[in-house]
Design a protein that fits this description.
Layout lengths: L1 E9 L16 H13 L6 E2 L8 E11 L5 H11 L4 E9 L11 E9 L13 E2 L6 H9 L3 E4 L19 E11 L4 E8 L6 H14 L6 H8 L14 E7 L1
Parallel strand pairs: 3-10, 5-6
Antiparallel strand pairs: 1-3, 1-4, 2-3, 5-9, 5-10, 7-8, 8-9
Helix pairs in contact: 1-2, 3-4
Length: 250
Amino acid sequence: MRNIRLVVAYEGTDFRGWQRQPQGPTVQSCLEDGLQKLTGAPVTILGSGRTDAGVHALRQVANFHTESTIPCENLVKALNNHLPPTIRIRRAEDVALTFHARYDVRCKTYCYRILVAPICPPFLWRYVWHYPYALDWRRMAEAAQHFQGEHDFASFAAADDSADDSAKTKDRVIIRSCLVWRPRTSVLAYEVTGTGFLRYMVRNIVGTLVEVGRGKLAPGDIPRILVARDRVQAGPTAPAQGLCLVRVEY
């Protein structure tokens, strides 16, 4: 028996997220179907965590157990031939049988991009939140600093208060983050690294930062919202297409 770790990139627009489900294609189902065709046996693939419908990944990590003897280098080429062009296997390697892509995660990094411009080019709309109104990015950057460190992020969780499978505790996680304005491309980029993430957490943080940029909230409101543990106190959920899983660390 082998345990193979995959590094996977995908463009999430056409998928109903990572996790296999009855309605519509998912990244997990495409990978498992492709691996079954290659190995001749059913395969269960374990991801580092779930990404929602429309969310992208640059370096998602997954693993699966198999008795197949296909070398990893050949597996990458063959599996990519069985996958849609919106999913690519970047790397495959044999790892210890005890490795678990979900439970062994130390931290993850996400990046969310907002295009602050009157018009969104057609080749960008799948990868940014197009926001055609003025935002005070300096106030947003100041607000983003309040998320640094260990906090209870219940105010920024989804309504069902579920985790993406990687949070070490239900709500308390440690993050470091920054928001950067890129004037040449008119993009606001929010990058956050954390020990775990609740469902919609990054998108809810970004939606709250935009409320700060609009002047609806002040940077100093963030500590109050964190302490409240009340989803109603935070801003709206940002659209999925601006979010990308950048890397997973073990």
